[in-house]
Design brief:
The chain is mainly alpha-helical. The protein has helices at residues 36-47, 52-66, 79-83, 108-111, 117-120, 137-142, 148-160, and strands at residues 29-30, 121-122. Strands 1-2 form a two-stranded parallel sheet. The two termini are 20 Å apart.
């Protein structure tokens, strides 16, 4: 299967510095369908479970970005915060329209610094679940409960077999 993000060699010349990859979006974390508990768990994995106050602030900022009103949560961020930045902008107040938009939410650029956003996240699809048969390494690195050793086992397992259920 060539939809796993491996670099593709094209039959025609590619400009220098251009890499072509194809990803199956079922193997990425869907930011448009991601539930609050799953976002919180992902933040806990990135920041550690002792960063409760920071995670609470991030969750409030996440909620304010997505909600349909301009009322800031207790520790959230709405128009006042974003319009006060050096380069001001307004929060979405709706579902994300691009993967990169997550970096505009207060605090998220720092949390996801160094993450290949295009490999880890998507805004396409109608489920929040990541298909382990198609999951990118970048997405799995963000999923709670998966460490590098288990990710390597998953990749090795799916070379020969597909995951068919939770028991796998």
């Amino acid at each position: 299967n060539r939809y796993d993000g491996e670099e593709l060699l094209l039959a025609y010349p590619q400009p220098e510095g251009i890499t072509v990859r194809i990803y199956n979006h079922r193997g990425k974390i869907n930011l448009r369908e991601l539930s609050r508990p799953r976002m919180r768990a992902m933040l806990e994995k990135r920041l550690g479970t002792n960063a409760t106050d920071q995670i609470d602030d991030l969750m409030d900022a996440w909620g304010d970005w997505l909600d349909l009103n301009e009322d800031a949560s207790a520790n959230g961020a709405e128009n006042d915060y974003y319009e006060g930045l050096e380069i001001p902008y307004r929060p979405r107040n709706g579902r994300l329209e691009t993967v990169e938009e997550i970096l505009q939410i207060r605090g998220f650029a720092e949390v996801f610094e160094g993450v290949d956003l295009d490999a880890a996240f998507t805004i396409y699809g109608e489920t929040e679940f990541v298909d382990l048969n198609k999951a990118t390494v970048e997405a799995m690195q963000l999923l709670p409960g998966l460490d590098d050793e288990l990710i390597a086992e998953i990749i090795n397992y799916r070379k020969d077999k597909d995951f068919t259920g939770n028991g796998d």
